[in-house]
Amino acid sequence: MNKAVILAGGQGKRMKAPIPKPMFKVLGEPMLEWVLGACEKAGLDKICVVTGYEAEQINAYLGDRCETAFQAERKGTGHAVMQTLPFLNADTDGNTLVLCGDAPFIDSDTIKKSLERHIEEHNAVTVITAQVPDPTGYGRILRTDSGIAGIVEDKDATDEQKRIDEINSGCYWFRTLDLIDMLGQITDQNAQHEYYLTDTVAIALESGRRAGAFCSKNPDVVLGANDRKGLLALNTAARMTVLNQHMANGVGFTCTDGIIIERSVKIGAGTEILPGTILRGKTEIGENCVIGPNCVVEDCIVGDNVTLNTMQAYQSRIDSGVKIGPYVHIRPDSHICSGALIGDFVEIKNTDIGPDTLIAHLAYLGDSDIGKSVNIGCGCVTVNFDGIKKSRCEIGDYAFVGCNNNLIAPVSLGKYSYTAAGATITTDVPDYALAIDRGTLHIKEGYTLRKFAQKKDEEKE
Predict the structure, then answer these.
(1) Phi first, then psi: what are they for 253, rounded to 5°?
(2) pLDDT at 441
(3) pLDDT digits 0-9 by tens, 342-391
(4) pLDDT tens per residue, range 384-416
């Protein structure tokens, strides 16, 4: 069996937050999630995550997804892997991948192809490497005709070795039995008194075993973050990678300023994304849409030919041909049917909006079922909460709801019904009926004169 060990015990002190380093997010997902996802996509279902600093946060995130091992003291990468010996000994056949939980850009293709090379060359250890324009600060790979001679750290490298541009990614394939054996031979006889996993290369070679290297075509596999600046760089790299993928699929960007699209988002060809737009989660956008500027869409399904302008939508469905915005809030469990038009300053919550319905401006519609071709007047509010329970309103097809209406749920307006401006509707309105709520108008002449006179008398006192 082939399996993986992910090292996720780091603190990341320079991040200046009480969060394990692998839990800092890149494009909305913890770095650890990127690594886990790559392993799972590569078919490595047996995974052990080594925790350390604030381990309970990682344990809560993982749940029952994979095994964990706790590193009480941070004494180096080799020491971290030593904590997984029960996991390794449970199945010693096959190979084990060791990788870093805070290097998010390892990809499944690199994992699979490096394993093929590892098996093909009968290596005890295979180091995953990458060639980069500036290798400063990284360990250099010393190659031979038959494999590698070792890894030399930047501070220990000669001038000639520093010109080597192939560097260590921190990811390694091991034959599981060889890894168990070599872990027992690593010592802390170094300046930091730590156990380094890189020592396994020298141990393998000294014992007559073979060590190799696989150079990934993805140079980003080496990228990590030690501080907020580094984390920003990871986010920038990930963001542009995702945007480039969408552009290759026919999505348009006039300008990429402020655009954040998480990697799980799907977008159809011909759609244009305008500045300031954030697309998150399992959002799917159809073809030939215009999204933005300044939109947030999270976990929504959006059809074709939709226009969204300066709005936010969450966990809802927006069908084809809909126009929404500006300044609209679509709250969860809403469904906007095709052809609907929603104008400025409208909030919709847990509501179905029928086809071709018009909500031009300044309305709140919550817990409602609204039919097709309905007109919702300015200032309309569904009063859906009585302080104890929430109730629904139902508005039939072709109804016309006047301005400044309060619909006191539960209430139903029939098809083709009308409600007059300023009405408070507390009972059902039949089909084709007109509901008028006109209280008696009282006019008190001279009221303000008396009020102002009273105020002046009080000021004199």
Answers:
(1) -135, 115
(2) 72
(3) 999 999 999 999 999 999 999 999 999 999 999 999 999 999 998 889 99
(4) 998 889 999 999 999 999 999 999 999 999 999
Angle at which helices 176-183 and 199-206 cross, to 10°: 100
Look up residue 267 and give its amino acid.
I
State the pLDDT at residue 457. 80
Cβ contacts of residue 428 below 8 Å, gap of 6+? 411, 412, 413, 414
CA dist 377 and 399 (Å) reads: 11
361 is catalytic: yes
- At 363, which helix (H) or strand (E)? strand 358-366
Gap between the terminal Cα atoms of the chain? 94
Which entry of 79, 122, 361, 442 is annotated as an active-site residue? 361
Distance CA 399, CA 376 (A): 8
- Evaluate whether 341 touches 358 at the Cβ level (below 8 Å): yes
> Coil, strand, or helix at residue 205?
helix
d(CA 353, CA 364): 12
With residues binned 3-state (H G I as helix, E B as strand, rest as coil), the percentages for the chain, rounded to 5, are: 25, 30, 45
Residue with tokens 């319905």: 357
CATH architecture of 228-435: 3 Solenoid (2.160)
Indicate the DSSP class of residue 107: -
What's the mean pLDDT in 451-461? 80
In this structure, whether the domain defined by 3-222 belongs to CATH 3.90.550.10 is answered with: yes
228-283: per-residue pLDDT in tens?
Answer: 999 999 999 999 999 999 999 999 999 999 999 999 999 999 999 999 999 999 99
Average per-residue pLDDT in the chain? 95
**Alpha-carbon gap, residue 449 to 48, rounded angstroms:** 81
Which amino acid, one-letter code, is at 427?
A: T
The segment(s) of the chain belonging to CATH 2.160.10.10 are: 228-435
CATH 3.90.550.10 positions along the chain are 3-222
Give residue 2's pLDDT.
Answer: 96
d(CA 304, CA 270): 10
